[in-house]
Amino acid sequence: MRITVTRDVFKLAQVFTISRGSRTEAKVLTVKVEQGGFSGWGECVPYARYDETLESVTAEIEGLPAEFSRVELQSLLPAGAARNAVDCALWDLEAKQAGKRVWELAGLPAPGPEITAYTLSLDTPEKMQAQAAENAFRPLLKIKLGTPDDMPRLEAVRAGAPKARIIIDANEGWSAEVYAELAPHLMRLGVELVEQPLPAGEDEALIGMDRPVPVCADESCHDRTSLPKLVGKYDVVNIKLDKTGGLTEALQLRAEALAAGYQVMVGCMVGSSLAMAPATLLAQDVSVTDLDGPLLLAEDREVPLQFDEDGVHPPAPALWG
Q1: 55 φ/ψ angles, rounded to the nearest 5 degrees
Q2: Euclidean distance between CA atoms 200 and 240, whole angstroms
Q3: Which of 52, 117, 248, 265 has the fewest beta carbons closer than 10 A?
Q4: At what angle do helices 151-160 and 125-134 cross, to 10 degrees?
């Protein structure tokens, strides 16, 4: 087995801002696993919020032994970006070696398109209203918030896209008091979900709090070991491959989360179609799909995912799986 790690940079269509900062490009790691004349591909997005860098994740991958299976990988690397890229590359490799699609190997039904959220970057109310109006044709908008002055932004987005469904991502930017104050207005404006309103280390405040709009765990939920800590705090879990450490753990997390009574959202970092491709299998029939990474890019993989009025489609074999 031969593993190659390369760095790729994809320019964004416009500046992308969340409560933690802005970016103009997506920096990703592309992993290629070669064995027996076949090649499997995976992509990850190292995330500074989880103390990951391009260098540290590359070192994790390059430190793997010469030979190992996808099952053995789960104990060789922790949940995170490095394991994600290798895990997804191994799924792709196994599918090519078997002459089947990944969903067949995983025992999943053939996937179809899923409506995905489209993210509006954090900005002034006037610019966010313009963003909303430009994308008002999309059925589901996700708004990046997370500041003390978010109500004018939310009102502006609703004015710009009066018919769109809306979900919010506060990126740990609110306090319990801010969330409690905003909750009635979220209902009034038809917000369907609030993602990670409080910092992951301070979300005990959600226990016993009235949650008229479902609250989703993002930074608070990484893999199956996170689930016991979410009880009483959250209604939804956001599963991202870069947090779970790949499709293998993500499928198990989805099953256990649903069995525990949580709704499931499938999200992404800002990456290319290669990063989203495995997640399209995970997103089948979940409550919310948020796989808009390629829509935020000015450039993408040679064989990109297809997006249309039906949503994001499963990958072609030439891309992944």
Answers
A1: -70, -45
A2: 16
A3: 52
A4: 30
Residues of the chain with pLDDT under 50: none
pLDDT of 12-66, one tens digit each?
988 787 766 778 899 999 999 999 999 999 999 999 999 999 999 999 999 999 9
Residues 247 and 263: their CA atoms lie apart, in Å, by 18
CB of 164 closer than 8 Å to CB of 133? no
Active-site residue set:
144, 240
Coil vs helix vs strand at 297 = strand
Please name the helix (run of DSSP H) or strand (run of DSSP E) that holds residue 62, with its range, or none. Answer: helix 54-62
Q: Residue 170 phi/psi, 5° resolution?
A: -90, -10
> Residue 316 in 3-state DSSP?
coil
Is-above-0.90 flag for pTM?
yes
d(C-alpha 195, C-alpha 289), whole Å:
13
DSSP state of 219: T
Q: What is the enclosing helix (H) or strand (E) of 184? A: helix 176-188
User: How far is 189 from 203, CA to CA, in rounded Å?
Assistant: 24
Q: What is the pLDDT of residue 18?
A: 75
pLDDT at 285: 95
pLDDT for residue 19: 64
**Residue type at 131 in one-letter notation:** Q
Strands (E), the chain: 2-18, 21-35, 38-44, 118-120, 140-144, 165-169, 191-195, 215-217, 236-239, 263-266, 288-289, 307-308, 311-312
Arithmetic mean of pLDDT over the chain: 95
Cα distance between residue 303 and residue 305, in whole Å: 7
**Which pLDDT belongs to residue 17?**
77
C-alpha 188/C-alpha 212 separation (Å) is 11
